[in-house]
Amino acid sequence: MAKQSQLCYLILFAELICLQILAPKCSAEKTQEMLDSFMGFLRGRPTIQVTEQTRQQNSSFPVETPDEVVKMVQKSINDSRRQLSYLSCGTGNPIDDCWRCEPNWQMNRQRLADCAIGFGRDAIGGKNGRYYVVTDSSDEDAVNPKPGTLRHAVIQDEPLWIIFQSDMVIQLKEELIMNSFKTIDGRGADVHIAHGACITIQFVTNIIIHGVSIHDCFQAGNAMVRNTPEHYGWRTVSDGDGISIFGGRYIWIDHCSLSNCKDGLIDAIMGSTAITISNNYFTHHDKVMLLGHSDSYVGDAIMQVTIAFNYFGEGLMQRMPRCRHGYFHIVNNHYAHWEMYAIGGSANPTINSEGNRFIAPDNANAKQVTKRLNAVDEEWMRWNWRSAGDLMVNGAFFVPSGAGAGNNYALASSVGAKSAFLVKTITEDAGVLQSRTHSSRSDDNTGRMSVSAAPMSILSAAHSHQIIYFFLCALCYVLIAFGHNFGFNC
User: Fold this and answer.
1) Residues designated catalytic
2) Cα separation, 173 vs 235, whole angstroms
3) Judgement on whether residues 184 and 300 belong to the same structural domain of the protein
4) HSE-up of residue 295 (Cα within 13 Å, Cβ side)
5) Rounded to an integer, what distance in angstroms lies between the CA atom of residue 89 and that of residue 100?
6) pTM of the model
């Protein structure tokens, strides 16, 4: 009887732990997910997690993947220098886990188009189009671009998946004006667009820009520039943005590194919407990101932008982002540095901040994450700005406002937020993926460290948590079942 009583106490204790602590983790669906993850680990390859449904395909897109293009793609990838495969997957970042878990990702580059999340999730870029290999880094003539150049690729009318034969620095004479249904895919090469004009996405749709370093962008203009095979026209002086989105829709900018441009690093204005800005690494810039043309331009009220899994690093001042009018979901970003403020806005934008990690500067006057502009207190206090599950470090604080209208925040919600405590892992590989299997970041205001760390174990932090919960749940089930099966009346 004494042994039975002791076992009863053990079973009751197990039931208490399961019901109060582990119940949310031990549903049948969750347990199966954890089991699949654990079995994937035992096989030496984490399971692929595709979090978005494959978009509907347009049968009118041309499909052409010549064997010689595949050979050129394979040749252009030096695996000894640029291993982007599954050693860094399984981190809980749904975009990376969608394609990086596949060691032969380069054999199906266009799968990337199925991995977008957020408001820009339907951006398909050049999916189902043929591959265009950029072989020439020059940009000698903006009206009659040479075949094999990036400018010649982006102006074509057909969908194209644009890749690069080798490392290159592209110094643009004039703005690179993109046509619709294009993907610029820098994976496997070290591609810089720098020291000249940069990218303009104007009144076009379905653009993906992935894996490109964009920096030191200048103003250009007062010149003729071609934007389609049939049309070119006069361009006035540009602002000098890294990426300028002007009336664009279905845009996805992922795993780019941006710094030190004349105006903004990424600006979206004039009715642009359905945009996701994810996994990017921002450094050394003043006005990082402007979303909305002006307080008076109400056409931006339709704007919906997701800003997810980005790393805001050293040397940044403000506008991460600065919003107007629309709906903005800022989720699971790592804010390691700002001098003035992180998130700002005017003209009644709806800002939904979830699961971010904010590390305030040491300056006592710059601890506030938020900044309202061009409005008195009575006005901005009605704007819907909220912070949910954000992690505040070094005295950072977010000033919320508004009545919290559910409909407004529904329009500013685009992807499920993960715990802010996982943000360091999720954003570890933000920016261009090159010449490293695992990068090291500092955990203070200095941003990213320049040294490379040892390769990351396949057993990532996310998988470790899942495996621990799996065994705890299994133990609970065994103890409870044991008691019930043997008929103990506890």
Assistant:
1) 319
2) 12
3) yes
4) 8
5) 6
6) 0.76
Owner of token pair 């894996």: 211
- At 400, list the tokens: 């919320």
- Are 423 and 357 in contact by the 8 Å Cβ rule? The answer is yes
Residue in the structure block whose two tokens are 């370093």:
213
DSSP letters, 35-68, are HHHHHHHHTTSPPP---SPPPPP-TTS-----HH
Cα four-point dihedral sign 100, 103, 109, 114:
negative
Give per-residue pLDDT as tens, 353-396.
999 999 999 999 999 999 999 999 999 999 999 999 999 999 99
Q: Are residues 325 and 413 in the same domain?
A: yes
> Strand 176-177 and strand 199-202: pairing?
parallel
Pairing, β 266-269 against β 273-278: unpaired
Task: Provide the domain limits for residue 30.
Answer: 2-44+461-485
Euclidean distance between CA atoms 166 and 458, whole angstroms: 29
**Does residue 446 fall inside a structural domain?**
no
Residue 255 lies in a domain: yes
Whether residue 50 lies inside any domain: the answer is no
Rounded CA-CA distance 189/165 in Å is 7
**Cβ neighbours around 247 below 10 Å, total:** 17
Tell me the backbone φ, ψ of residue 356, rounded to 5 degrees: -90, 160
Q: Is the pLDDT of residue 202 over 80?
A: yes
Going through 97-246 in order, the beta strands assigned E by DSSP cover: 130-134, 160-164, 168-170, 176-177, 182-185, 191-196, 199-202, 205-210, 213-217, 223-226, 232-235, 243-246
Please give the structure tokens belonging to residue 424.
């360091």
Is 452 inside any structural domain? no
Q: What is the domain count for the chain?
A: 2
